[in-house]
Amino acid sequence: MLRVWFHKGWRTLSQLRLAVILLALILAVIFVGTLLPQFPHHIEPAHIDYTKTSWAADWWSAVQARYGVLYAPLRALGLFDLFGSLWFQGLVALLALSTTACLLNRLGPLARVALRPRVHLPRERFERATLRAGLAFPSPQAAESALVTSLKRRRYTVHVERDAQGRHLRADRHRLLRLGTLLSHFSLIALLLAAAYGGLTGWRTSAIEATSDRPVPVGHGTGVWLRCDDLQVLRYADGTPQDYRAHVTLTDDDGRTLTEGVVRVNGPLSYAGVGYYLRGYRIGDGGCRVTLQAVHDPGFGPVIAAGLGLFLGVTLTFYFPHRRIWARIGPSGETTLVGSSAWDQERFARQFARLAAELQEKAV
Amino acid sequence: MSGGAFLLLTLLGATVAYGVHAASGRPAWGRAGTLLAALAWLVLTTGLVTRGLRAGHWPLTTRFEFALATVWATLPLYLCLERSAGTRQGGASVLLLVSLLALWAARQPAVEQALRPLPPALRSGWFPLHVGCSAVAYGAFIVAGGLGATYLVSEWLTARGLTETRLASPDQTVYLIWRAAGMGFPWLTLGMLTGAIWAQVAWGRYWAWDPKESWTLITWLTWLITLHGWGLRGWRGRRTAQLAVLGLLVTWFTFMGVGWLVRALRLESVHIF
Fold first, then answer.
1. What distance in Å separates the CA atoms of residue B77 and residue B183, rounded to the nearest whole number?
2. CA-CA-CA-CA torsion sign (A42, A45, A51, A54)
3. Which of A180, A256, B97, B200 could disulfide-pair with A317, CB 3.0 to 4.6 Å?
4. How far is CA B82 from the centre of its chain?
């Protein structure tokens, strides 16, 4: 019984229709999330003073004042912290599960197509093929030679087998790239897992006011203290800011220097897996005074690696469609040619027709 | 005549030529549309290169520049597809969309069109990559959406007996929609990826659920659904065309509408300033 339920569940999970429904649901939820203010623990807007202990309570009070009677039910549904809500994360987890089921179901068939090409195609497949051409060569050798030459010129990889029934030919273009779809689906799962890993194990400080007067602790068990040594504001000729450069020193609990360097808007300082980011500055009281944020996100590297895999996978899928051509050459040179493409049937049909016409000329 | 006015006239001329070609079926008008579209691209390329050289950075920093970069990306994508497919049936709607975008850019206030030095946050190598990839993706989506509109309009005209035959071959148009969407999707993925790297380097957070980011994800999901629809029974046809038009509207909103949304609903965003 349990086995039957498992199979049923697995089949449902791996259905493309379910994946599309989940994608549409996630899209709808994100849409709602852009219509309501979201608790600012992701965006961190500049106008919120995160050094104030009451910033969160202040934010909730402002939202309550704005939404009145709707505030309580909307908050209870988690709509003001939608992307952190359990049900949104559950929906994303379900999508990851559905993608995994789909991936595992397609792994075997796609790997066989890409890695173990079948040269000998059954007769009924020849008869059912949409793209088909019949050719008459003077001999099987002439047919094979003409096919191999034409296909290799088109950068196809050609395999030929001979048996009592005649000669069988298979030609592939972008065969291994067929695995691109597996790569993109695997990468999507990896990306979601990496993001979850980063969210669970990473941390970020609230704003740290670093001055030249005395070092301030970073916290989070780092044992690192921050001191701002110097701040430079570079300006263009018209007076608009070009760059902010804060020279910062990191020291340990005993005041020994661990590292020092310049922190810019697009140039954080990194030390021991923690990035130090420039969030703001203040000029006017003589010394250096900057707002920094320390971030430790071990998920970032894996997220980007998975994102690259996703990009590569979709590029291979949409720019390099797998094309296959089979030929059956009879003992007197009569040849049947069939072809198929992963999705690009329309364009491939024209290429197939051109190939058939070229071979027809050679056959004559 | 200024370069901008010449560009607009060329684009509008291409739209008219493609339109006449679609209505009359006369190939000469189609060829004229292609020539004018190619000429517009050359003019725009020259203009963007000159602007970039004068500014000292990639001309991708303002919405004005982004709109022109999207026009620049759309034209060769459409022309490649036209050449590969051997049909000009979608030219009128694609060029009309491109002309409207160029017209919108031309109507931007002078301060938006002026050359500006890069503010500190935009002084990153990841920024032009992020914006450039997005412009190419948007270009492909304009082509897909334009073809979707062509499909729906021709179906509507045929249903009302306004034309004897459909303006475009439905199967071929659906295939071209899917191909254009497939051409743009990897670019949008790369645009989001480079944007994430830039955000991490600049602010220490690669994804913040900012309304602009969320709408980019909505755009990505809409096109992902469109592409997955190819494998669903009954979706290759009108539904693909409808999804492509929806995808185009979502893409348009992500580019032009999110700023309005943020201001109207008083949302938090670091992208809108």
1. 9
2. negative
3. A180
4. 16
> Would you state the pLDDT for residue A2?
83
Which tokens sit at B244?
């492509």
Q: How far apart are CA A205 and CA A50, in angstroms?
A: 10
Assess A305–B contact: CB distance below 8 Å, yes or no. no
Residues from chain A that touch B86, judged by Cβ atoms under 8 A, are 350
Query: What are A161's two structure tokens?
Result: 């087998």
Instruction: Give the pLDDT confidence score for residue B167 in this predicted structure.
Output: 58
Calculate the CA B101 to chain-centre distance.
8
Instruction: Report pLDDT digits (tens) over A207-264.
Output: 888 988 889 999 999 999 999 999 999 999 989 999 999 999 999 999 999 999 999 9
CB A160 within 8 A of CB A184: no
CA-CA distance, B183 to B140, in Å (whole number)?
6
**Which is nearest to A295 in space by CA: A201, A215, A216?**
A201
Report the predicted TM-score, pTM, of the whole model to 2 decimal places: 0.94
DSSP lists the bridge partners of residue A166 as: A163
Select from A33, A40, A265 the Cβ nearest to the Cβ of B202.
Answer: A265
Query: DSSP state, A232?
Result: E
Per-residue confidence (pLDDT) for residue B165, from 0 to 100:
57
CB contact (8 A) between residue A236 and residue B117 = yes
DSSP at B122: G
pLDDT(B273) > 60: no
The ipTM (two decimal places) reads 0.94
Q: Are A261 and A292 in contact (CB under 8 A)?
A: no
Instruction: Give me the residue from B119, B224, B230 closest to A343, CB to CB.
Output: B230
CB atoms within 10 A of CB A144: 21
Nearest CA in chain B to A205: B204
